[in-house]
Amino acid sequence: MKNMELKEQLVKLLGSDNVCDEMAERICYSRDCGPDKAGIPDIVVKPGNTEEIAVVIRLANKIKKPVYTWGRATTFLGSGVPQGCILLTTTRLDKILKVDLDTSTVTVQAGVIWHTIDAVLKDHNRELFIPGGGGLFSGTVGGSVAVNVIPHAITEYGMTGDHVLGLEVVLPDGTIIHTGASANPDCLPIERYSNGPDISGLFMGAYGTLGIITEITYRIRKTPELEKFAFYAFADYKKAVEAVNEIQKENAATFVIGLFAGPKPKDVEGEAFIHIIVRDSEREATYRLKQAERLCESFNGIAHDAFGTKKYWEDHMYSWLRNVAPGPYYAGAPYMCPEVAGFMPTLQLKDSLALLFQYVEDHKAEFEKYDILIKGFDTYFTRNGVYLWIDTLYNEMKEDSWKYGLKLRGELCDLMYGKGKMAAGGLGAGVAPYAMPKLGNTFTFLKQLKKTMDPNNVLNPGVLFLGD
């Protein structure tokens, strides 16, 4: 089908305001926040509800044209937009459908931004069970659930997907399904683990390759009574890791963030730095913070003013982890980040960091030649492990720097997903070719699953390296 004929059909389905084939518009949808240059879509569509998404998918199957789903493109991991695809953006699906205080749930469309929900729940003295990931002011709930984004407060509250109770999903053939309790249309979406297998989990972390999430029901709770903060510097990064391991065992913190490379927090000396956030009742928050402080000090941690910790939590701006306001921190040349990230046991972090430090030392001359910077080897500590993200920066204005940055990402993937014993926690088209083949029979199973559910390889082909 020629593009003009395709446009005419899509206009009939969605209306002329929601279909665009102008080059300027298409280019805007060809790249996310990461370093990868992807294809340019043939056409951009903006459906306004689930049924409109379904009819687009059915048409795409009929003409065997790939569809790429797009939320707000806040990922650093490579969008993988196929050349000549239909790009389907969920931004018009922006409604909060129901806040149910009796069942402690909120149901939203996939294009809603995390912070929008927070603003509504605040009027009820409620909050989401997790506050969203790094893009909570710009990232959509649907996109975040589809990639199972790493959230703030993961140390106590867990992963994004842990608090999903049910989904509405458009499958690769255009069929609309519901998961969990609401798979039975007579039931409310109050329980994920009902009506048979946990189908919700199939779509979380699948990056839109197995279906398009259109609605999400999520747990909510009362806002904790008190928030308390602490910030510690350590002369030995291994001691910092050991201290946090003990904090995890004691459940002494809601959120622990570690800084192990990159710029040091302003006006603070040390080799590693730990931010601690506790949210609880007044009594429990005070008790738990004292526990965390005692444990840090038992591993030779030095307490410092936690104003940056507090600003980071309240403003959710990354720069405050280093005691710097966003303006000065992000000023200067446009550097981009080919991120490598994943999970490991907490104590494994000591050996994995040693590998990274040695790698940087061995490649110091190349880093200088290609203007590569270390933004950070930073961590969110989970309930029983750690999520490490390795942020190396290249100069966007230099092509040789960009090429080396992508090569560097591949080498770091091979190092960390092998010898570093790190399980990939952020995939996307840029990282999947390195991470997925390491999964052996599981990778084979995932490819078979993709082929079965999406025989025409229509949905997000190439994003997880499944249909290639």
Could you give a short description of this structure?
This protein is 33% helix and 22% strand. With 468 residues, the protein is an alpha+beta fold. The longest helix has 18 residues, at 399-416.
- Give me the oligomer status: single chain
Distance between the termini: 23 Å
The CATH topology of the largest domain is given as: Uridine Diphospho-n-acetylenolpyruvylglucosamine Reductase, domain 3
Strand percentage, roughly? 15-25%
> Stretches where pLDDT falls below 50 for ≥5 residues?
none
Q: Overall 3D geometry?
A: globular
State the helix count: 16
Number of strands: 19
Mean pLDDT equals 93
How do the strands and helices of this protein lay out in sequence?
Blueprint: H1 3-14, E1 19-20, H2 23-28, E2 43-45, H3 50-63, E3 67-70, E4 86-89, E5 96-100, E6 105-109, H4 114-122, E7 126-128, H5 141-147, H6 154-157, E8 164-170, E9 176-178, H7 200-203, E10 212-222, E11 226-234, H8 237-250, E12 255-259, E13 272-280, H9 282-298, E14 302-304, H10 307-315, H11 326-329, E15 335-336, E16 340-344, H12 348-362, H13 364-369, E17 373-381, E18 386-395, H14 399-416, E19 423-424, H15 432-435, H16 441-453
Parallel strand pairs: 2-4, 3-4
Antiparallel strand pairs: 1-2, 5-6, 6-10, 7-10, 8-9, 8-10, 11-13, 11-14, 12-13, 12-17, 15-18, 16-18, 16-19, 17-18
Helix pairs in contact: 8-9
